Amino acid sequence: RPVPWRRLLGISAPIAAVLALRWGWVPLPAGTPPAGAHDLPLRVLSSLGHAVRLTVAPYPPSVFAAPGLFDPAGAARYAPWSVALGVAALGVMAGLAVRARRVPARPPALADLAFALVLLGPALNVVPLGLVSLFAMRFLYLPLLGVAALAARAVAAAPPTATRTVTLAAVGGLVVCALVSFDHVGDFTSDEALWTRERELNPALCFTHAELATVRARQRRLDEALQLEREHLRCAVDQRSPQRTAQAAHAVAEAA
């Protein structure tokens, strides 16, 4: 079958425009470690793996659900499980694509998954986004439409004898998703709620200690603020981050 280049271009052009606008209007944060073609495959596969994990098991909810970590030299480190999951996801898509070319009618499931993957494209770090988190839960808002279509197709295709079971399972899944969302909403009621939660979930992100220290200082709980800044410094030293260590040491000196 001929490759539908016009359709491919029609899909790719908006994605390229989104990435260009992001780069032009939202510059990378100062001090962002360099990233480029040398780690492109691992970066994209890890981002895709985190996307799959957050789709299937979005708990515990976090603003920094896939924190980017770096070694002392500034090179990015990617969780092996996320890379493996990304490879598996691409394998499933490739398998469906091969099957689609061998049968007269393309599997509808392929269209649903392709819809999700295309909308994920701008968030997969093909062009490094330079964010604290390699992938964020909010990046799934639109791609989940494809996942929802796939789930709806599966429910509709269930045999009559299993309709009740499948319906109860679908309702149960929706209830679980609602509970996760309600749990996450509480994190945004105040700075204290947000940074207390994020510090518990991601203690390796040194700035979470600093942000909570700022909250404590505003509350005039200065002893706690000083202790948190010391934890911030300890975290930075452990990760051998010169820039973060200097910032933490300055904060501790001012707090003291």
Explain what this protein looks like in three dimensions.
Helix content is 65%, strand content 4%. 23% of the residues are buried. The strands form two sheets. Strands 1-4 form a two-stranded antiparallel sheet. It has a two-stranded antiparallel ribbon with strand order 2-3. The chain is mainly alpha-helical and 256 residues long. The radius of gyration is 22 Å and the shape is globular.
Question: What's the layout of helices and strands?
Answer:
Blueprint: H1 5-25, H2 40-56, E1 66-67, E2 69-70, E3 76-77, H3 80-102, H4 108-120, E4 133-135, H5 143-156, H6 163-185, H7 191-201, H8 206-218, H9 222-238, H10 242-255
Antiparallel strand pairs: 1-4, 2-3
Helix pairs in contact: 2-3, 3-4, 4-5, 7-8, 8-9, 9-10
Largest sheet: 2 strands, antiparallel
Q: State the secondary-structure class.
A: mainly alpha
Spatial order of strands in the largest sheet: 1-4
- SSE run: HHEEEHHEHHHHHH
Strand content: under 5%
